[in-house]
Amino acid sequence: MHAGIRTRLGRSLAAAVLGVLVGLGAGLAGGVGGVGVAHADGTSEDFCTLDLTDGSYTCSGQTSEPVTTAVTVSAQLAAPQLFAAASPGSVLLARLYDAPNRSTASGYLDVFAPGGCDWSMDMDWSLGTMPSGWNDRVSSFQGFNHCAVKLWQNGGLTGSAYGPIYSANGVGGLDNQASSVSFH
Ligand SMILES: [Ca+2]
Question: What is the pLDDT of residues 138-172, one digit of tens each?
Fold first, then answer.
């Protein structure tokens, strides 16, 4: 009898602990899939990948590689090996940073496509609408695979613009203003 009671108690206790863990997991998953880790200043810490190949968009609360690797990339040809793409064969067009000076401190958005950019300044790829959590947020960027980046104040590549240039530690009047991006 006593043993049976203990067993039932043990099971209900285990179920309660499991419930807490499941609840915690759901909370974490919600954070990762949504706007990320919320900060007191209203920003969030997101490390995101958007692939124009299939529109796939994922974020995590951590960098996908050591920060030192991310900020010291110099050879454009090395980018595809250093950055994991959502779709096989996708190429990194640019990394858009929340913080100025290409700092990863507050998150970044990596934009991939089926191919890179050519050597002329015509537009090769465009992102007409920023993915969730990235509207009015970009403060610096780095292009890869011959891509120069142009930020637009409004969606659909309209309004004031900054660029196209290959790399920017600040984006002037479009700081925390960009709502669409083109790649040239
Ligand atoms: Ca920002």
Answer: 999 999 999 999 999 999 999 999 999 999 999 99
Determine the Cα–Cα distance for residues 19 and 144; give it in Å rounded to an integer. Answer: 45
Ligand 1 centre from 145 Cα, in Å?
A: 24
> Which is nearest to 113 in space by CA: 46, 55, 157, 179?
55
In whole angstroms, give the CA distance from residue 52 to residue 126.
Answer: 9
Q: Which residue's entry shows tokens 């104040």?
A: 153
C-alpha dist (Å) from residue 3 to 8, 9, 10, 12, 63: 9, 10, 10, 14, 49
pTM for the model: 0.67
Q: Comparing C-alpha atoms, which of 129, 134, 127 is closest to residue 112?
A: 127
Q: Are the beta carbons of 135 and 110 closer than 8 angstroms?
A: no
The alpha carbon of 99 and the centre of ligand 1 are apart by a number of angstroms equal to 5
